[in-house]
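Duplicate of #3305? Posting structure anyway:
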């Protein structure tokens, strides 16, 4: 019997990439799956029913149960419809996996309000729009699993992604808070920070273009014209294979099982053969005095506290920076 036999699952953004892998593995483990995906382009534009329909067909052809849903996660009505699709077709909802995502990368000084709003809407509001209606039902039934998707861009930082990083950091915070809202009702809320080669990562400068066994999969990735095969620093075909989005699915499935009943409010880094439990943010170094610091005291103490801590984006040597000691010539 499958590890998710009888469970009813909603996976948003399940038409492609990581979401598709999660939907297919959960179906193979016996879950009945709502495959949500309006099939948008990577920037969120357009609509295409084919990706969700394809995943539903693939699940059914393996003897599984699945229905498509094409609503966008960006509105409360969309979220309500997505959750209602589970109730209408399968009678309940046990698991919500919030995977849907888009990218509109731009350096902060060039980013438009639209680029900001669109990315925040899909990722951050999208998590709320689906989680809210699911949480009402899960609280009533005293059972549920919610699995969110953040990113290293949000928990570590990545240049050119102020909108995306803010949303993904928000999702990490959302996870910690909602876990505390729902834990007492038998509902767990956790978060995955994935790494995988999908269309979302295909445009990164060092994206792989392997030859050999991984080449077929690579052919489905956009931007291959550059023909970077054989370039030093690119992953081997075997490494490329390990970075396929399907590798994120097993840990997502595990968090959805009954066995994971006491794992709540946690964030896991998941890629290839790696599952890492992320530390919660804590003060790394602390200075203390029994009263208010003066600015003069801090001018002395903070540099001492910060000794050895790297600036993630230091200004170039030839840029004159007020306050920076002049390099000895
Ligand atoms: N691939 C990675 O390395 C990586 C790294 C960090 C985080 N993530 C996150 O993992 C998730 C999946 O990413 P992926 O790489 O599989 O991307 P992907 O582009 O392959 O798949 C995302 C899917 O979400 C769907 N989607 C977009 N907007 C939607 C909306 N409004 N409503 C419903 N569905 C919508 C798209 O149509 C697409 O099929 C995203 O949240 C992404 O931010 C991915």
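Output from current build:
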């Amino acid at each position: 019997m499958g590890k998710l036999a009888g469970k009813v699952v909603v996976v948003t953004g399940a038409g492609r990439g990581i979401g598709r892998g999660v939907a297919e593995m959960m179906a193979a483990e016996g879950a009945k799956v709502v495959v949500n995906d309006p099939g948008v382009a990577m920037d969120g534009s357009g609509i295409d029913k084919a990706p969700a329909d394809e995943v539903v067909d693939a699940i059914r052809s393996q003897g599984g149960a699945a229905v498509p849903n094409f609503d966008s996660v960006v509105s409360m009505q969309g979220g309500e419809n997505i959750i209602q699709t589970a109730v209408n077709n399968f009678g309940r909802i046990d698991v919500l996996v919030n995977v849907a995502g888009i990218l509109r990368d731009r350096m902060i000084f060039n980013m438009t309000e639209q680029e900001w709003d669109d990315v925040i809407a899909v990722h951050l509001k999208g998590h709320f729009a689906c989680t809210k209606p699911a949480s009402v039902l899960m609280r009533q039934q005293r059972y549920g699993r919610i699995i969110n998707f953040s990113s290293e861009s949000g928990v570590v930082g990545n240049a050119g992604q102020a909108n995306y990083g803010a949303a993904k950091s928000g999702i990490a915070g959302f996870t910690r808070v909602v876990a505390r809202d729902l834990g007492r009702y038998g509902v767990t809320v956790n978060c995955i920070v994935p790494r995988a080669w999908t269309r979302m990562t295909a445009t990164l400068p060092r994206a792989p273009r392997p030859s050999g066994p991984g080449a077929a999969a690579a052919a489905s990735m956009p931007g291959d014209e550059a023909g970077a095969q054989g370039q030093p620093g690119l992953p081997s075909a075997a490494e490329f294979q390990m970075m396929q989005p399907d590798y994120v699915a097993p840990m997502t499935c595990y968090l959805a099982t009954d066995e994971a009943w006491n794992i709540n409010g946690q964030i896991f880094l998941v890629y290839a053969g790696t599952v890492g439990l992320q530390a919660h943010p804590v003060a790394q170094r602390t200075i203390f005095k029994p009263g208010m610091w003066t600015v003069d005291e801090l001018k002395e103490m903070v540099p001492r506290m910060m000794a050895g801590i790297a600036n993630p984006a230091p200004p170039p040597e030839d840029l004159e920076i007020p306050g920076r000691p002049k390099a000895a010539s």
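Confirmed duplicate; merging threads. DSSP finds ten helices and eight strands in the chain. Residues 209-230 have pLDDT under 50 and may be disordered.
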